[in-house]
Each structure stands twice: as structure tokens, then as C-alpha cells.
Amino acid sequence: MVKAVVLGAAGGIGQPLSLLLKTNPLVTEHTQLSLYDIVNTPGVAADLSHISTPAKVTGYLPPDDGLKKALTGAEVVIIPAGVPRKPGMTRDDLFKINAGIVRDLAVGIATTAPKAFVLVISNPVNSTVPIVAEVFKKHGVFDPKRIFGVTTLDVVRASTFVSEILGDLSLASKITVPVVGGHSGVTIVPLLSQSSHPLPSGFAQEEVDKLTNRIQFGGDEVVKAKDGAGSATLSMAYAGAEFAYKVIRAAKGEKGIVAPTFVNLAADKEGGDALKKEIGRDLEYFSAPVELGPEGVVKINSLGKISEYESTLIKNAVPELATNIEKGVSFIEPSK
Ligand code: NAD
Ligand code: LMR
Hints:
This is Malate dehydrogenase. By secondary structure, this protein is an alpha/beta fold. It has helices at 14-23, 41-49, 66-71, 95-112, 125-138, 152-165, 205-216, 218-226, 234-251, 269-279, 308-332; strands at residues 2-7, 31-36, 56-60, 76-79, 117-120, 147-149, 179-181, 188-190, 257-264, 285-293, 296-300. Helix 5 packs across helix 11 and helix 6 (152-165) runs antiparallel to helix 7 (205-216). It binds nicotinamide-adenine-dinucleotide and (2S)-2-hydroxybutanedioic acid. (2S)-2-hydroxybutanedioic acid (LMR) is lined by residues 84-85, 91, 123, 153, 219, 222-223, 231-232.
């Protein structure tokens, strides 16, 4: 039995993400899909429940302890609740509204489903993940192995853009490029030198720079194209579902599943300490390739061999990451 919960399920990401979960064979007759939002979840749940796949779908709203009911017995909780960007905004500009939303939802999870795997999509991820962790610490239920910032969209974009450069979109789902650091602008560090499918020979540094920049600012590309109507929703739903499947498959015992995700480096002390040495800074959180298992994080992998250019990208990412992390931590630290 797996109970998966989507918090923010009626939104631009929440609806297609719930659809993907409802239609994936991994989410079987033994699965309950529980949808929570401050609006429209009964409608979304009724709609999805007519799809001829086995997962049972239920929708909850805030009245009558809706959040608690939605979360009771949850094993996987995915959080896309919160406001998206408009052109001209940074992800950090969302902190003012989203920090409080994520904090309140985290209190609900900490008190009702403290053992659940928590997958945080709401931006700014570099700060909202520390918020969830600090809430869990306050409630005495913090397990760094179980809280994940979802950075999969950066990985998905990297695969797609590399496949475009190789002139073969059919390769996109096979190409893997580790993307590390965090999830905003310069904190997004694609390790293109480790692409499973190397860039064309003679690919100039200038072109590597352009491709790196496109991956780092892929979110802005979508925000600009949507022209005030929000940010990535469909590609994010795809990426969120992909990451959730990995967490569920690993929880069910499948071995060797590795995915980049933004985690507290205490999740694997040995790997985390080694990573801190590699990045040259004692950061509490970082997105790195993480091996997943039945209890969540099994191992935080080393970044491996990286180019001088990538090493500079990491150096540039670290100060902003440190600021973002501290902002999330200190939002909870005072008695709130
Ligand atoms: P949206 O506005 O379409 O949907 C957000 C949903 O959250 C709405 O349905 C809203 O009612 C709900 N909500 C608001 N407050 C809530 C609360 N207290 N409890 C439960 N639900 C609540 O926005 P969206 O496009 O779906 O984006 C959601 C978030 O995801 C944004 O913060 C966005 O920046 C982020 N995002 C992250 C990534 C990533 O890669 N991690 C990618 C895309 C978007
Ligand atoms: C993304 O990368 O698309 C998301 O983080 C949304 C955004 O604000 O860019």
C-alpha cells in the first residue's frame, strides 16, 4: 500500500502531476492518491477518479481538518503549493508568500505523517527545503534522509537541450547529465563534461557557456514565454512525477537508483562531508547525485571528475546557495 499526497493539487503543476501519478502503472490498486489544496480539489479528484486505472483518488479542502485527513497514513508527500513567478521576478521574490505556505504544510506533515518522504517543489527550493527541515527539527521528527528538494526539471532540461544539440530528440530520454548545486540561476550547475552522450567534438567553450546558461535560466525562458501566466507547469509535472517514481521504486526495494536532488548533507555523513570538501564550503544543503533506498537517501555521491569551468560554476553558486539556505533556516529558527 502506498499513499501519495499532493499538496497544492489544484494548481498548474498539481493537476498534471496528479494525472501522471493516477495513470502510472507503478501507482497501482494498492495506491491511494490524496489531493489537497485550498480550492477545487473535490472537482479535480472527481475528474481523475473517472480514469480507468486502479489508484483511488480523494480530494480535501482546509475545512474539517482536511489537511490532516489528506496526510493521514501518507508515505510520499509532494508539495507544489505556492505562487509561481511572473516576468521580472526571481525565485527568491516568491519567498515572502511561499515560505509561510510551506511552513504551515510542513507542520501538518510533521504532526500527521512524520515518516513520509517529502518532495518539495515550491520555490525558492533552496530556501523552502531548509524551512521543511527546520519545522521537522522543531517537532523532533527530522530525518534528513526523507526530505528532498525536487531539482529534476534541471536534469530534464539538460537532457533535452543536449539532445537538440546532438540533432536527435529521440536521445533526450536516454541522455543523463548530472545537474548539481541548487535550483535558481547560477546555483544550477550542469556537469556537461559528465554527459552520458558527449557534446560534439569541436564544441567550443563559448557554446558550452551558452548551453550552461540556457539550463541555468530555462525557468526564465518559460516564464517569459508564458508572459505573466505563470512558470513551468507541464514539464515540472513530468519531472516531479519522474522523481516521485524513483523515490517509490527505491522505497519498494529497487537498488541502484540515483538522482540529483537538493538534500541536507547530514543525510549521509560520510558522503556529505566528502562533498563539502569538494565544494570547499561547509554548506548544510546541496543538490548532488543521491542514491535512493527504502529509507530515502542511502548515499550522497561525489561530484566526480569535473572540468575547471564547472569548478568555477560551483564557486559562483556557493555564496548564493549559502544565503538562500540561511534565509530558510532563520525563517523558522525564531519562535514562530
Ligand atoms: P499555481 O498557482 O498554478 O498553483 C499553486 C497551487 O497552490 C494553487 O492551486 C493554490 O491554490 C495552491 N495553494 C496555495 N496556498 C496553498 C496552501 N496553503 N495549501 C495548499 N495549497 C495551496 O502555481 P504552479 O505553477 O503550480 O507552481 C507552484 C510552485 O511550484 C511555485 O512556487 C513555482 O515557483 C514552483 N515550481 C517549482 C519548480 C521546480 O523545479 N522545483 C518548477 C516549476 C514551478
Ligand atoms: C523552473 O525552473 O521552471 C521553476 O523553478 C519555475 C521558475 O520560476 O522558473
